[in-house]
Design brief:
By secondary structure, the protein is α/β, with parallel strands linked by helices. It contains nine helices and six strands, in the order αβααβαβαβββαααα. It has a four-stranded mixed β-sheet. 35% of the residues are buried.
Length: 217
């Protein structure tokens, strides 16, 4: 299923929740979204969030040649940087060959968050080719787990904790023909789960910051 309901319906709900909770995040966005929905992208920037790059057309970089990958990053960078500085990158599907990291450096990226600790347990924060690589802590559907097992896991995550969601998760997709992990507890339940996760970490004294601030730290 390929729709734009995540941008049209889910994104405004996410932005409102983050504003209400006083949290700034990083929105990894494709160049295609920037071209189709410039007002939505401007709303992200106007709300004080970081705009990051998520490729141009959400293609899987493991299926592309080096030249195709560079073209994909160049097109996305041009579209996104019309809205302001863009220095953070995350590949679709959290799949980005290490051999492509120098391409990010050539295009002015300082941070890459294309690895997931749930996929590669030994993934760590490190510098590669002048790019800071900061892995995500868990996959997005983890935020929609029942709060007891989820919170037990969350309090054991090692810093920096990097959580992520997709705007489409805040659209009710429970009756769609999708994988179970893509449709369970979507819509209102997902929004409540994201809010409770923010509050859990806030209660534990966490500091919330866009990904780019990891570079300065």
């Amino acid at each position: 299923m390929r729709t734009w309901r995540g941008i049209e319906e889910g994104l405004p709900r996410l932005l409102d929740m983050l504003t209400e909770e006083g949290v700034r995040g990083t929105f990894f966005t494709t160049g295609e979204v920037a071209r189709r929905y410039p007002r939505a992208v401007q709303a992200i920037v106007d709300a004080g969030h970081e705009l990051g790059c998520h490729g141009d057309t959400h293609r899987n970089f493991t299926t592309l040649t080096a030249r195709e990958s560079e073209d994909e990053i160049a097109r996305a960078s041009a579209a996104l940087r019309a809205f302001g500085p863009v220095v953070s990158f995350r590949a679709p599907y959290l799949q980005f060959p290490a051999a492509l990291v120098p391409i990010l450096a050539r295009h002015g990226y300082a941070l890459d968050s294309s690895e997931g600790r749930h996929k590669r347990f030994r993934a760590s924060v490190r510098m590669e080719h002048d790019v800071l690589r900061v892995p995500t802590s868990v996959t997005s559907s983890t935020l929609r787990w029942p709060h007891v097992p989820r919170d037990v896991l969350f309090v054991r995550l090692r810093a920096p904790v990097v959580l992520f969601v997709h705007p489409w998760e805040f659209v009710d997709l429970r009756r769609e023909r999708l994988r179970f992990d893509c449709r369970f507890r979507t819509g209102d339940a997902a929004l409540a789960c994201a809010r409770s996760a923010v509050r859990l970490f806030a209660a534990r004294g966490a500091t919330f910051a866009p990904m780019r601030e990891c570079v300065d730290r």
